[in-house]
Amino acid sequence: MLYDALVNYLISMAARGKRHEPRAGCDREPRKPANSRIAREVFLLEPRINEMEIVIDEHAVRLLRRGSYSEDELRMIVSALKITNDLERIGDLAVTLRSV
Known about the structure:
mainly alpha; 0% strand
């Protein structure tokens, strides 16, 4: 059950991160002013991404404590930890890009 929850949280976090990308200004032309409504959305979504990272990390730690997983399952758990770190960093960068 925790394994399925881990996968679902990871997918949800990735989807939120994907929504950050265009809002962060990755698609805007250089020196084009940022839309303040979009900037607010980016700033409001970032704390949720941080919370999701914590939840996913906690799930992964619980799973690792239980032990007795196959090699593939262990790889998935460790990969989830690495992916959440990267997605959280993407959220941070989105905020930085919107601030400029």
